[in-house]
Amino acid sequence: MSLRLADVDSWLRVLRTTRYLRSSQIAYRLRRVACRAIPFASGKRRSRHSDSATLHQPVGALPSVPLFGRGCLQGAGLVEELRRGKLSLVNQTLPLLADEPDWRLGHQTENRLWAITLHYHAWLFELSQLVGSHQVLNNPADTLLRSFLQQWLRGCRLGRPGVEALAWNSYSIATRLGWWARLWHGLGSSFWKQSPELEREFLQSMHLQATQLEYNLEWDLRANHLLRDAVGLAWAGRFFAGREADRWMRTATRLAIAQADEQMLTDGGHFERSPFYHLEVMDDLLSLALLLKGKAAREKMRQTWRQAADYVCWLRHPDGRVAQFNDGAAASVEEHVRLGSAIGIELDLAPRRGGRNFADSGVVVWHDKQWSLVFDVGQIGPDYQPAHAHADTLTVECSFAGERLFVDPGCHSYDHDERRRYDRSTDAHNTVCIDGTDSSEMWHIFRVGRRARPMEVHVDIQADRLSAAAAHDGYRHLPGKPNHHRAIQVAEHGPLQVHDRISGAGEHHAQGGWLLAAAWNATSIEKGWRLTRDLLCVEVTVDSDKPLNFSIVQANYHPEYGIEVATQRLQWKYEGSLPLEVRCTVASVS
Length: 590
Description:
Blueprint: H1 2-18, H2 23-35, H3 43-47, H4 76-83, E1 86-89, E2 92-95, H5 112-118, H6 122-134, H7 140-155, H8 170-193, H9 196-215, H10 223-239, H11 243-263, H12 275-291, H13 295-314, H14 333-337, E3 354-358, E4 363-367, E5 371-376, E6 396-400, E7 403-406, H15 418-424, E8 432-434, E9 442-443, E10 447-448, E11 454-461, E12 465-472, E13 483-491, E14 496-503, E15 507-515, E16 521-525, E17 528-533, E18 536-544, E19 549-557, E20 565-577, E21 580-588
Helix pairs in contact: 6-7, 6-8, 7-9, 8-9, 8-10, 9-10, 10-11, 10-12, 11-13, 12-13
């Protein structure tokens, strides 16, 4: 009977997840399943891939699109690493033998992010930069580049078992097309004249990839994937000449305009509510502003980018890195915003001061000389695609005196493991967890069932202070229907005050607290903790209408993909009847 109940619960969870999908997402997923039974190179599709040299002839110079998102070693360090049979991507170093590379084809259960990044080929572009700058036959970079290109073209040819999982995944193709276009032009005619067969295979594969992408736009996933698909088609439309290239450009243009309207909220935020993916989307908008051929479309991308850049400047901590809500790394904001010069936009990068309520995104921000604070009072993401969401409703990140203080757990990787569960869980964030249950139902790698809905949002911003409050209903399904309400107050030269109220009835256990940036050291004091870092000292005191247990526990922080930092979590716990009120004050100690 227990097994049957578990099966029923699993099916109910699936229903709670899929009920939000759009009909087009379901239709395209079914279409993909059906197409797997049909060889790609058949019927009408096969006729599109002739061996005509004219069909695959690239055009002249390409627009100068800034380089971003390489994520690998550069220069001689990359060559030496590859000669030793290794490759570092997303802060992880794994084997990649030059004579027999393992391309990680098929379904991967470990290091999935590393494996898909491998097929973006930014690292091959870096090799090509060395070859193009030295133009010496048989130099190590030249030898490695030719070897890896030839082996990828043959070992990852479309139609081979397992290639569509990661190597020919649409997002991989869309990203790779940009690096390949730059690689081909950067190497120059002298390189390709020495290897006419390699050139022929390269161009045929690139053309086939664009066609594969065109037939497999990610309407099942949507969100940032569709915008990256538009970038890939725009690169192909710029790189090749002819009717197909023109069609790819038209598709890229329609897709870019529609997705900019759908994905970018009126306050400038991206609708997935991940500041890191917001930066990724900004890079894609900037690429499209340079690649698209229509003047109106380019201007649309440019203005959308400008608004997105202003938004993310507000979500920047004093260390220059972005807030880390939901999936992603604490990336540098300035590195992305400065790229606006490529499209004629120069933004003021001075630290923002005062408060802003980004009501559409559900983010409240405050910056003064002492505090920088970001308060999440919004949806976890779009209902039909919350893959990058965490169960973090009403969480807070803050910096004190220019240093990160309370941090988000971050995102280590996209494997189905304990790290992924931890990163997405409520009890890892700076909010309140009830009965050990996530406020939104996180499961597997990217799935979300039941979703917390924010409510009762109120924000009051004055010249010298911020007051903000919100609640959510993520625990209403539990016995006694508990609700979490949080109010925050912060003022220049004053303390940070956080007031949590848990309404409802019955017996429950609740816990809350703060994940510390690793550089801080915590010691226990009466009803709280003293935090020290160099000459800085802060006390966190907690008061409640009912008895609490206090502790300092070991925890992990993931500031970037693939990086795990040991840190401490300040934690209070309660077990008993509701309602419960917990008041936390964070104040400087001289």
